[in-house]
UniProtKB/TrEMBL annotation:
Residues 166-394 form the SUF system FeS cluster assembly SufBD core domain. One of its GO terms (biological process) is iron-sulfur cluster assembly. This is Fe-S cluster assembly protein SufD. It holds the Pfam family SUFBD_core.
Length: 426
């Protein structure tokens, strides 16, 4: 029997040593745990459809250098990270009472020790195995702290740029600690420059205290030479609210694991996601919502569009724990195939151990309705424009809900490019 492939020792090279001792010790611990780590295969359930796209070759094992000039930053508050490290000169960090944005390398020994105890605490590391690679390799990171009652008056854009002028990997790391009744909108945009083969392995964690409210917007737009492995973990305490809007454009491999834990009574989350793929691209979304405390609400809506010979995957899991009485959970996944060669795999899961709950889940996969197309064309609309109208209508409900206008405009522009490449005038 052929042995299962394991993570190459090239990925276990010692990273830089600029962090406080507690974070260096954490990295060392996580790196030791990665030795002989089996890589996902088709027999790995949560990588069943994506393992063949994962290319962890020695070519990309090195850490990408921070040198280089990042692209123009977003207006307003922004933190620009190039290959996982903050570029201070290109950033405009908020100067708002009760809100601090600091590099891991700037923390005191006591602050770093506290952070080291909390990193990875929001994620199921067995389910998100390759998040451990980030924990072993991050060169630096951002700690965003919101004190009680603090409110960020405008969105904070975190621009993650993978500079692929040479082959290698970047390991961005973000930790958001939102204290009681604080509020913020945080936008993460993933972009790239350069044409060498590269990978982004990113982890973002949120901890929300009592009554805190965080809106997270995530936009994945790297070029076709960059693999993306992303994980987001969220813990919510009493009456906290987390709202997520994820928009993803396909690549050689795009993977995002989103795990939300409703740990306090009255906590609630809303998860929206839109994915489009074309050519031979691949995108895989895995979401998990853990209803641990009673009286919690969750709402999840993801929509995928696949064209060409591309492949999209959605795996959504809702777990209602025994003590999570009075839970209210709803999951909906709709999928649109634009070509016979495209493929979408969807797997909604609902696991309930409480008896006083309201839960529903569903999934659909279909193609554009020929009757609707005929109706539009018969009224003088070109077939290409009719295709665009119907396809945009399929996802526009979710795009319109993005609460940051600049992100909405960026997403719509990229979608317009997608339509131009996918539909030709008949």
């Amino acid at each position: 029997m052929k042995p299962a492939p394991t993570l190459s020792s090239a990925f276990l090279q010692p990273p830089g040593q600029t962090l406080p001792a507690a974070l260096l010790a954490l990295r060392q611990q996580r790196g030791t745990a990665l030795a002989d780590l089996p890589l996902p295969t088709r027999k790995t359930e949560n990588w069943k459809y994506s393992s063949k796209y994962l290319k962890l070759t020695d070519e990309i094992a090195a850490t990408l250098p921070v040198s280089g000039t990042p692209a123009a930053a977003a207006p307003g508050y922004c933190a620009v990270l190039r290959n996982g490290v903050l570029v201070s000169d290109a950033s405009n960090l908020p100067a708002v009472a009760g809100i601090r944005v600091r590099r891991f390398s700037e923390l005191s020994d006591d602050e770093a020790a506290t952070l080291a105890q909390r990193l990875d605490g929001t994620l199921d590391r067995q389910a998100v195995q390759l998040a451990g690679l980030n924990s072993a390799r991050f060169e630096d990171g951002l700690l965003i702290t919101l004190e009680p009652e603090a409110v960020l008056d405008q969105p904070l854009f975190i621009i993650h740029e993978t500079g692929a002028e040479s082959s290698g990997s970047a390991f961005p790391r973000i930790y958001v600690d939102a204290a009681r009744h604080s509020k913020a909108t945080i936008v993460e945009e993933y972009t790239s420059s350069g044409t060498a083969v590269a990978m982004t392995n990113t982890v973002t964690e949120f901890t929300l205290g009592d009554g805190a409210s965080i809106t997270s917007v995530r936009l994945a737009m790297e070029e076709q030479n960059v693999q993306h492995l992303g994980a987001t973990g969220v813990r919510l305490l009493d009456n906290a609210r987390f709202e997520s809007h994820c928009v993803g454009f396909g690549g050689p491999l795009r993977r995002h694991d989103l795990q939300v834990r409703l740990e306090g009574p009255g906590a609630e989350c809303k998860l929206n996601g839109v994915v489009v793929t074309q050519g031979k691209q691949h995108y895989d979304n895995h979401t998990t919502i853990e209803h641990i405390a009673p009286h919690c609400n969750s709402e999840e809506t993801y929509r995928n569009i696949a064209a060409g010979e591309s492949h999209a995957v959605f795996n959504g899991r809702i777990h209602i724990h025994q003590d999570a009485q009075k839970s209210n959970a709803d999951m909906n996944n709709k999928n649109l195939l634009l070509n016979n060669g495209a493929e979408i795999d969807t797997k909604p899961e609902l696991e309930i151990y409480a008896d006083d709950v309201k839960c529903a889940h569903g999934a659909t996969i279909g193609q554009l309705d020929e009757t609707s197309l005929f109706y539009l064309v018969s009224r003088g609309i070109g077939r290409r424009d009719a295709n665009v109208l119907l396809t945009m209508a399929f996802i526009n409900e979710l795009v319109d809900q993005i609460p940051v206008e600049a992100v909405k405009e960026t997403a719509q522009a990229r979608l317009s490019d997608f339509f131009d490449q996918t539909f030709q005038e008949a």
